[in-house]
């Protein structure tokens, strides 16, 4: 097949998909919102389908789905909630789409020197983290500090966000000196955002495996099926890894 023929075939496939373009509504955990924006853009270029995103903590989104929120796909930050949706007959097709990494980050270039020890210093007055009861990354942050034996000492410094987006905002607005965040929030294409950071060793917290499910009402929708196929493709995996996911 010639190069010209190949390009023609791709263009024809995209045009054909665009003629039958549909919309997929995705509930996405805070940590994966930025990667999912990039995925939605690329997915539209490939298929012509639109992806409408709604984000929040995994716990919040799960509660919305249980109460009838009209989502087609749920991208959680854990494995527990997607499994519960399957068990209750609300969803199907569960698979792991990413494994997250936890970082401690500050916009202050001088604050973190690749270590957690600064958390105990008096200049760190507020530490942002997602609510461990709602967000898996918040639970991971708690596990880290418990393993280091400093969790109880730091209790008065915690500023809890309902999810990772509010947690990130606490840090960038100066309402917290440092924050436990998803690596994807401050990392893109091999580079961290300006500031200072500590990549938390993976043996300090349980693996953050992130599962996706298709809500039953949308399981037969062609656009939903195309999105799931895309998320399992090498193209999507390359894009996801560029945000620091394993």
From TrEMBL:
InterPro entries: AvModA-like_subst-bd, ModA, ModA/WtpA
Gene3D superfamilies listed in its UniProt record: Periplasmic binding protein-like II
Binding site for molybdate: 58
Signal peptide: 1-21
One annotated GO molecular function: metal ion binding
Pfam families, alphabetized: SBP_bac_11
Biological processes, Gene Ontology terms: molybdate ion transport
Keywords, sorted A to Z: Metal-binding, Molybdenum, Signal
Family per record: Belongs to the bacterial solute-binding protein ModA family.
Quaternary structure and partners: The complex is composed of two ATP-binding proteins (ModC), two transmembrane proteins (ModB) and a solute-binding protein (ModA).
Name the UniProt record assigns to this protein: Molybdate ABC transporter substrate-binding protein
Species name: Vibrio albus
């Amino acid at each position: 097949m010639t190069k010209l023929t190949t390009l023609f075939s791709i263009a024809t496939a995209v045009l054909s998909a665009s003629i039958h373009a549909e919309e997929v509504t995705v509930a996405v955990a805070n940590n994966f919102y930025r990667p999912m924006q990039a995925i939605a853009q690329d997915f539209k270029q490939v298929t012509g389908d639109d992806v409408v995103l709604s984000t929040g903590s995994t716990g919040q989104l799960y509660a919305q789905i249980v109460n009838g929120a009209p989502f087609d796909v749920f991208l959680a930050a854990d494995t527990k909630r997607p499994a519960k949706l399957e068990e209750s007959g609300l969803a199907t097709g569960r698979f792991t789409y990413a494994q997250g990494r936890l970082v401690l980050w500050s916009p202050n270039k001088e604050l973190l020197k690749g270590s957690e020890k600064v958390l105990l210093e008096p200049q760190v007055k507020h530490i942002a983290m997602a609510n461990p009861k709602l967000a898996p990354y918040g639970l991971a942050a708690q596990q880290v500090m418990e393993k280091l034996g400093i969790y109880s000492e730091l209790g008065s410094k915690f500023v809890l966000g309902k999810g990772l987006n509010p947690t990130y905002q606490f840090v960038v607005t100066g309402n917290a000196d440092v924050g436990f965040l998803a690596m994807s929030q401050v990392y893109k294409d091999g580079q961290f955002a300006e500031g200072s950071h500590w990549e938390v060793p993976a043996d300090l917290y349980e693996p953050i495996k992130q599962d996706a499910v298709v809500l039953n009402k949308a399981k037969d929708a062609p656009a939903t099926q195309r999105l799931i196929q895309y998320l399992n493709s090498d193209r999507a995996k390359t894009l996801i890894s560029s945000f620091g996911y394993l």
